[in-house]
Predict the structure of Type II toxin-antitoxin system HicA family toxin.
Amino acid sequence: MPKKIREIKAMLTAAGFVARSGKGSHSNWKHPLLPLVITIARKDGEDAPRYLERKVEAALANLKEVEDGQS
């Protein structure tokens, strides 16, 4: 079952990502340690598309590697 957009946003917030608003329902999420920006384009109650879930999972894994390398 796909995650909801609100769940994706909660995961990013817990990992230290910061949200910037975009146009309409878009929001851009950035972490100070990573060069990438994740754009989320749906309302909180909607299902997250699979590509977005994969992108968030990859970003969280990348963040873990970066944080482990700095320790």
The mean pLDDT is 95. The helical segments are 5-14, 50-70. DSSP finds two helices and three strands in the chain. Strands lie at 18-21, 26-30, 37-41.
